[in-house]
Input
Amino acid sequence: MSILRGRAWVFGNNVDTDQILPGYAMAEEVANLPKFAMAGSSVPDFAAKVQEGDIIIAGKNFGCGSSREQAPVALKGAGVGLVIAGSFARIFRRNAINIGLPVLVAETAGHIQSGDIIEANLETGEIILKDAVLKGKPLSANTLETIRAGGLINRVRQELGVN
Amino acid sequence: MNFIERYLAKAAGLDSVQPGQDIRCKVDLTMAHDVTAPMAVEQFEQIGVSRVFDRNKIVFVIDHIFPAATVQARNAYWKMKDFAAKYGIVFYEKGEGVCHQLLAERHRLQPGQILIGADSHTCTAGAYGAIGIGVGSTELAAAMATGTIDLEVPEVMQIYVTGKPAAFVCGKDVILTLIKRFGTDGLTDKAVVFTGPGIQTLSDEDRMTICNMGIEAGAMIACFGGSELEAEVAETVPLALETLVPVVACPHSPANVKPASELEDIAVTQVVVGSCTNGRLGDFKRVVDVLKFHKVHPDVNLLLIPASKTILGEMEKLGWCEILRNAGAVITNPGCGPCFGAHQGLAAERDTVLSTTNRNFLGRMGHRNAKIYLASPATAAETAVRGVITAPGTLPAGGKEA
Output
């Protein structure tokens, strides 16, 4: 679980939630959301091409805009196993962690191209490439606790003692 | 401690807090709407508790797609309706208005209150000194069950405001100018606070517009403080209101901001005034002031979307609706309108829209090749009349009545 390996899809800066999941898809049932993953982005046919475990690589401010949790839900449902970005918008980052989609903050510009197979270690923040190792930012203790619990709902259940 | 830290410490039951500290706060109010509530309901049911933490402190609003434009949207309503009936929470289901406006009108927002909303523009509540924090559906579900939220104490960026804005400069120009300065991620994870003698010249409505768009620079919290300089903040930036001019955010970023006067001659096909950003009485006053004397350009749709039923009622009482309609505007029911691209005025590839809403991302309001410009209601009003982007104050005030 802590080491993830997958094929990279490289995006730029400021990939907003309308690119990740356009407003017109908001009323869809959760089961249909993956069909719209990245439909508003520079790769509109992403959902048709993405494979289980693929990794999104982006620049700064990934997930800016709306609080729509459907955005990370669509990515996770489409098979995305991890998002690595130079930085994340706050609400997207929390939403992803809360639903169990791992995110890693790391500067990767110029090091990774779409199609590259990369490996990331969530605990150390290391990203292993064919010819280099990049160092990402380690996750906070609180974030790790949520991830260890398997998302926020499980964590709340544990804390409230609900069986 | 600065005032944000004092508020958070109190909510966390601590004597003091510092930036970066993880705290667990009591929440005073939680809110979700028809796009975010259905998923929150599902997640709440996953938790498996038999009651909400306080039914009077949970507000659901149907505002994003009302009346339902699709069957799925109506299904979202039913999911919320059933939850509201089961748990006895507060439910605005008849087009009462946009969630952020309803919280301000009906829930007595107070300085230091902790307000959690499953909408990124929950920071609007900072106009009243409340700590409004946007979250996703899962975090909202957790807060509905526990009455608490885990937060990281943010660094505070202080905007020290002085002076008075010129006649045609609106709250929208204040915040767009700041977003240009900071960029769309310049305030990520931070609280931005507004202090200084200049804030006295900003109405509650201006303050709501300003706080509303704090998220467009990435801010976790946007909040008005007092007239005094706040000590113990990470950074302070001065802002002299008299130096501001009417501005427009160009496609496709709220930070791509230019003076309106540099954009004249760009033809528009639709003008939208409304939303949680600029759908209040003072905003429509700006439009009435222009449409009293001028008609909407024949090649332009002017859509006016009041932020609440109360506001629409006031407009009717003042006789504005008749003036606006006679001049060629269309007034829709209160709600979010076309802002996020679901209904009521979507843009096609050939359209250029000037809107008082908060986002002009690629494809936000319909087709990805449609161009969206963001501006104040004053700029929007004169643009709707001339059919090209127009700095407010260009048209003669007065003259022949429409």
User: Anything to note?
Assistant: Residues 116 and 127 of chain A are 12 Å apart (CA to CA).
